[in-house]
């Protein structure tokens, strides 16, 4: 099973997809109504969300530290 999420707007009984979708046959869908339409999430909120979720915890694993300064093509100050 695979899932595809797209942004959409519900207006007067119709759903208007904001992203292009290439689906060739009928599919079941789940429609989730958000409390409010959010056009942009502040970066600070995304940082808090990613930190709280643990999604990037794998980066603390020494085995993931595969690059060194010697791998840099350009060094910025």
Search tags:
single chain; little secondary structure; two-stranded antiparallel ribbon; elongated
Describe the structure.
This protein has 77 residues and is mostly loops. The chain has one domain. It is built from one helix and two strands. It has one helix at residues 43-53, and strands at residues 8-11, 14-17. Strands 1-2 form a two-stranded antiparallel ribbon. A hairpin with a 2-residue loop joins strand 1 (8-11) and strand 2 (14-17). The radius of gyration is 20 Å and the shape is elongated. The termini are far apart. 0% of the residues are buried. The model has no long low-confidence stretch (mean pLDDT 84).
Shape: elongated
Q: What separation lies between the terminal Cα atoms?
A: 47 Å
Tally of distinct domains: 1
Per DSSP, what share of the residues sits in E-state strands of 2 or more residues?
Answer: 5-15%
Report the C-alpha radius of gyration, rounded. Answer: 20 Å
The profile of the biggest β sheet is:
2 strands, antiparallel
Structural class: little secondary structure
* Overall strand count: 2
Q: Name the poorly predicted regions.
A: none
Write out the strand line-up for the largest beta sheet, numbering strands in chain order: 1-2
Which range best describes the helical content: under 10%, 10-25%, 25-40%, 40-55%, 55-70% or over 70%? 10-25%
How many individual helices? Answer: 1
Secondary-structure element order, as H and E?
A: EEH
Global mean pLDDT:
84
């Amino acid at each position: 099973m695979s899932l595809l999420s797209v942004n959409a707007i519900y207006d007067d009984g119709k759903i208007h997809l904001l992203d292009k979708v290439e689906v060739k046959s009928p599919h079941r869908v789940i429609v989730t109504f958000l409390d409010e339409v959010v056009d942009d999430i502040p970066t600070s909120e995304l940082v808090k969300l990613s930190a709280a979720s643990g999604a990037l915890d794998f980066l603390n694993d020494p085995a993931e530290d595969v690059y060194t300064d010697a791998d840099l093509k350009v060094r910025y100050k």
